[in-house]
Amino acid sequence: MGYRIAVVGATGNVGREMLQILAERQFPLDEVAALASSRSTGDVIDFGDSGETLKVKNLEHFDFAGWDMALFAAGSETSRLHAPRAAQAGCIVIDNSSLYRMDPDVPLVVPEVNGEVLATRPRKGIVANPNCSTAQMVVALKPLHDAATIKRVVVATYQSVSGAGKAGMDELFNQSRNIFVGDSVEPQKFSKQIAFNVIPHIDSFLDDGSTKEEWKMVVETKKILDPKIKVTATCVRVPVFVGHSEAVNVEFEREISAKEAQDILRQSPGVMLVDKREDGGYVTPVECVGDYATFVSRVREDPTVENGLNLWVVSDNLRKGAALNAVQIAEMLGRKHLQKAA
Description:
Elements: E1 3-8, H1 13-24, E2 29-36, E3 44-46, E4 53-55, E5 57-58, E6 69-72, H2 76-88, E7 92-95, H3 111-114, E8 126-128, H4 132-148, E9 150-159, H5 165-181, H6 212-224, E10 230-237, E11 244-252, H7 258-266, E12 271-273, H8 285-288, E13 294-302, E14 308-315, H9 319-337
Parallel strand pairs: 1-2, 1-6, 2-5, 6-7, 7-8, 9-10, 12-13
Antiparallel strand pairs: 3-4, 9-11, 11-14, 13-14
């Protein structure tokens, strides 16, 4: 027997990717429901590449009783309204929004990093998916932390427009086209022109001058990996459609060489080390799209601090940064808490 899985926000970028990954990984399904707002009710969307389709159902009227898990990819307001309703009906919620990430009663999970927290069933019936930029970074950092104990992380991100949803992708496409044909470029989704530009501003500004995206990377890394780690981030939107990149500087308590780090990363779950010190011997966002792995390149020692390393980390943000991580959590929950009779 399989599971009954509902995908909330099924018509969005991440929701569609969740459905694609459920199909790709042959998740044991008895039934899958595609849920969205009333605007999309009745639309037909693809489920995998086999030609199978699903008719979108209205989330407002959906009864979660009897459903095993719900993967939410529709934003914090939708999660606030409907995640507790699903959990109260006995359906475990895996939420991709930021709403529950820092709730002490809600586990914030990257399976390769802290999957052991799912050994017990979530108290509120909700598991939080981390921010996309955090997820890929902690996958790369976890095995190095285990080996040499991380003291401090300084990260600069290069985040694709797909992190801002379909509207962000449309804006990059339209602005690029307009520039080529000589039409005007008016920012709508982003605060400034994104085509042929970079914007050091993701999410809202906080009182200390950082943005909420930068704050998320700090607090989520501490919750997932280790509260003792000091983290500072600068998050930048770049004119790339899919794939987040990060330049990560790490300071350790114990000595660790670049070669030792490479050897560790080469064997680490979820990591693909591509690190040849030659032209093209590294991974860029274009190459990571559609892949499950978090790619690490440019591993080298930082001579300006004691026990320091630099890393280049790249991943498909719609996959490991969102949809894949949610499906991996569902796989783990299914094995631990929702065993089905054969």
